[in-house]
Amino acid sequence: MATGLLGKVALAATTNTAVYTVTAGKSATANIRVINRDLINSVTLRLAMCPPGYTAPAAPANADYIEPIDLVLPAGGVLEESAMAMSAGEVVVAYASAATVTVRVYGFES
Question: What domain of life (predicted)?
């Protein structure tokens, strides 16, 4: 059973990036923390949980987004989604308008 850090990435600008995929045959309870490291400029963010078989950098389906598309994350801002139940093979996908965003997924996989 994996616990703690499940995945992390410093996002490239304007690219859908797979941050964490639940291991086959497992489920997870995950927290997703997103920060804008830029202390001057805001960024826009997209956050999705895609079904098994998703391959980055494809665009997630509209039904996969868990935040409004192009949500504004202010300078130095933090967004956290907690206790997200995930099934085997599901993928956390993130996108940002600038390369100043870090995404960390942590929790439990069993």
Answer: Bacteria
